[in-house]
């Protein structure tokens, strides 16, 4: 009796996926729960386990095919079949490192692209920390790989000297692809014989600037045309990278000085000179995904933003009064995000439409509050999720936000940390933003924008007083949330923050 392999449910709002790769071929033996095929969506890459043991009898969808949820992928028949070659998966410390003996007796260790925890099949080479000839220690970071969700560092599997680097920053690489080779046990000053291919790979690296970062593409082309070396040019780019303008400047300094006649009239702008001061950098996979999803949100939702302002004095007074006792008891600082998260969950219970989403012609109301907290990193914006925030205390919320924020900045967020959010909070105030209109995090129908706390004159009880005020912005999907509901939601958040005792009394 044959068993069907079908596309599983891939998460909220995900209706289709692309076949990434098959781990087995027709006729291979399969064990129940063994990964058999990989599916890629716009959010995540997942491995589909075998529903039963047997033989892969049929492959119904080839690699690269787009399939819908529950579509037939293949069939498993009875029998043992032909034993398949076990594929060794690389891990974060390059477990697939392959070694070979050198003529001089040294040992070369291949460092390959590791597999990410979320089964991502390809990545982009980010920053390369080392160059050919550098010594490395075991577990020392060598380079960075960026996926569409996060970044991870590749560690040295052995101690030795880097003899060859076969990739450059910006290259797209597949899982298992060769990144570099390390001569195990060698020291930086050792003079081991290298093959012609290694010398060829080392040559460009020795011509880089002292920072180890290769020249920008336009600069590299100009260096080649002028017969110059990057080491002869002082780079002005990030981390000393040589830009095209640096090459032109260095070339000008080397030319005999000649008297320059002052122009009588302003000269026309030169496109070539402007280009020399530009730097073209390929977008990271994470940035490409952010750009696509934000544009999709604008194209799909009927977005509208409503504003209000909140007097932060009650919350600030409470923090000042209890912050030391709070930190001593809970081991975490009392910040603003705990208050805002609880105020939002309080308001979501009263206005459930803001916590809902549209799926086709249906509205899905969420009877739980998974609050996404937008975090800015040097790689781009990510939104980890505080799950069941409505059931947490302020201390538990602060601890979870602290954990997620650190993981985001370290590039160690897992897919589980970023899935399932029902509402998002974005705090642009930490960067000094006074007012903004945040973009929805699809398929959610609401996002709250926090802003800078600024002292302003306010009329309180018929008198003008100075108060620490903050503008609040709620962007919402007008297809599902009416204006009255949006305004009421924002008013409820304001009321709770201006009278925090409401949280205790659930008012």
Automatic annotation (TrEMBL):
Key word Acyltransferase present: yes
Transmembrane segments: none
Entry-linked Pfam families: 2-oxoacid_dh, Biotin_lipoyl, E3_binding
Skewed-composition ranges (Basic and acidic residues): 83-104
Enzyme class: transferase
GO annotation terms (biological process): L-lysine catabolic process to acetyl-CoA via saccharopine; tricarboxylic acid cycle
Catalytic activity from the UniProt record: N(6)-[(R)-dihydrolipoyl]-L-lysyl-[protein] + succinyl-CoA = N(6)-[(R)-S(8)-succinyldihydrolipoyl]-L-lysyl-[protein] + CoA
Any one GO cellular component localisation term in the record: oxoglutarate dehydrogenase complex
Domain Lipoyl-binding, first and last residues per copy: 2-77, 108-183
GO MF terms, alphabetically ordered: dihydrolipoyllysine-residue succinyltransferase activity
The organism's place on the tree of life at top rank: Bacteria
Record-linked InterPro entries: 2-oxoA_DH_lipoyl-BS (IPR003016), 2-oxoacid_dehydrogenase (IPR050537), 2-oxoacid_DH_actylTfrase (IPR001078), Biotin_lipoyl (IPR000089), CAT-like_dom_sf (IPR023213), E3-bd_dom_sf (IPR036625), PSBD (IPR004167), Single_hybrid_motif (IPR011053)
Biased composition (Low complexity): 190-206
EC number: 2.3.1.61
Segments forming domain Peripheral subunit-binding (PSBD): 214-251
Chain segments carrying region Disordered: 80-106, 190-217, 252-280
Pathway: Amino-acid degradation; L-lysine degradation via saccharopine pathway; glutaryl-CoA from L-lysine: step 6/6
Family assignment from sequence similarity: Belongs to the 2-oxoacid dehydrogenase family.
NCBIfam families: PRK05704.1, sucB
Protein name: Dihydrolipoyllysine-residue succinyltransferase component of 2-oxoglutarate dehydrogenase complex
Species this chain originates from: Nitratireductor basaltis
